[in-house]
Amino acid sequence: MRVVKPHNVTRKMMETSVLMGHAPTKVDEKGRLKIPAGFRKVIEDRYGDECFITSMDGERAALYPMPVWYDFQARLAKVPSTSQAKAKLLERVNYYGQAGTIDAQGRVLVPAVLRNVAGIAEDVIVIGNTDHLIIWNEERIQRRMQEQPLTSDDWKELELHGV
User: Fold this and answer.
1) SS3 helix, strand, coil % of the chain, rounded to 5?
2) What gap in Å lies between CA 126 and CA 22, rounded to an integer?
3) Which of 30, 69, 92, 140 is within CB 3.0–4.6 Å of 52 for a Cys-Cys bond?
């Protein structure tokens, strides 16, 4: 009989249920993002094939599995309707966003307005962000990482949260 240590079980569970790492992929001429296979498996196994793709800043796209998006919407619903921050956020995510379905080939349509403003065409980088994906124009993410490095203040803030 083989005994599995608890930390190995936890690690294995996280490997199969958390979106992490990055992968290059393509957006075809019709604007469909090919979700990298490893990310696709996690999303479909854990959440299904329905998603919401949007942006909060127009710099990059975010693909949320629909259950994750609904959780976000539930938290946002608790913010008073008179909140200007809530109004601005809803304006952006709904302007850039649309619901979608991952097709049998693992593709999902990126809204045209979002493709245009975020430069999401042809070759892109997909980054796992725990429960959703971030889609970047490759030149933009490389420039951002160079221009906005992690600082000692960033590390201090993370330490306050136990990281």
Assistant:
1) 45, 25, 30
2) 5
3) 69
